[in-house]
Amino acid sequence: DLGMGFPFEHGLRATLATMRLADLLDVDAETSSQTFYSSLLMYSGCTTDIDTTVRIFGGNATDHINPVQHGSRAEALGGVLRALPPPDTSPLLRPFEVARRLPQAVKNRKPQFRAICEVASMLAERLGLPPAVHTMFAFITERWDGDGALRRAEGEGVPLPVRIVHVGRDAIRQRLLGGDEHAVRIIRQRSGHAFDPDVAEMLVDHSEEIFSAADAAECWEPVLAAEPRPWLWLEGDEIDRAVAAMGYFADLVCPWPGHSQGVADLAESAAAVAGLDAADLTAARRAGHLHDLGRVAVHPRIWQKAERLSADEWEQVRLHAYHTERILSRSTFLSRLGQEGGAHHERLDGSGYHRGVGAATLSPIARLLGVCDSFQAMTEPRPYRPAMAPEMAAEALAEGARAGVHDPELVSAVVSAAGQPAPRFERPAGLSEREAEVLGLVARGMQTKQVARALAISVKTADSHIQNTYRKIGVSTRAAATIFAIENGLVASGELPIP
Description:
single chain, mainly alpha
């Protein structure tokens, strides 16, 4: 929905309507299941080759092309012609822009549709859906009358779940544009052309009931309830495969593919260097895959822009982190990963976005992802600069840590995991390395004996370190020492066992 510019939860509501249509058609359980998943993922391949698409179409393809994608040839051509010129093109120059861009659009049409089908199929497979669902997406651009872009099938050769999805989802899209009567009129017009006449007739005859399914006050739980049984479950490596696929999908909207995979790999390696436990290693890797899902909400032209961003464009960029968190917030399982991933642009000194929170609010995983994302981004090319050498990126992170922007311990871990020499940092208030380590353990709640046991030193030595640390930072209580440790990024990483 975000990538296509549809309203919030449009795809969920359209799926509820589509499933009501499938129920009225009295389809079998297998067809119902395939319809459910195909509807949810119908537009999942539409960010494919987006860098090429935005070069061809200066206008908004969703506004102009999507409403007529199932229309007649003349309607489809009209939508393309309206989408070709940039919206601010003067009337005198619009014919020139159309003439210049149209040949590229024609040349790109079939390759683009093939890519959309292939990417959607690959995403379905990596999300753990059965092979019968993967194959649906080979026909997602086909029509009942055989006049589809790729001409792979016609009539009943187009799988029934696809025929149902086409009618159900187009009806809800048309309803957004012109209301109930407009949607019914469009479906009736397209019956026997783009749409299976039996499916179209069912929607026309029962439009009120079908549309009411999309009007649920809250649609998340109804969509989960609409999933046909047996429910599909993911466990272990299957979850990693699914979240990785979600990251790949988000990366398609930008001209630097592989970013999410790079962050995930670096986060997992750096988490191990930092001493995080196995559960946090897994969470860091998964949050790394998911941290940039919100990029799809920002227009690709902004990501490709080499010039300075306008205030509005910069605000859209700032909000991509919010969208990551919002996308994942509905799922109990994914919400923690969304919170960690959505904080990847926050900084210890409160200078980051989208919340502008500081050290006290950021977990070790959130801090780690911020450093990993920064390193990965700096070593990748951007439209406004070339890629930075790894050693230069490492030094930039070290400078950020010295300025209080990044956690020094985690900068050292990330830089080491990236194969660069770990930087050395001067500790605040003149603390030694051992005193900084002791303070981090104290801030985790350890008593003097527990600190001694964790560091394999005597209790007397541990107590001496604690007293010296308190004196140097000017506090006399554990609570004040904890606040100092948090503010200065000295809290020991990971959940250390307390005997």
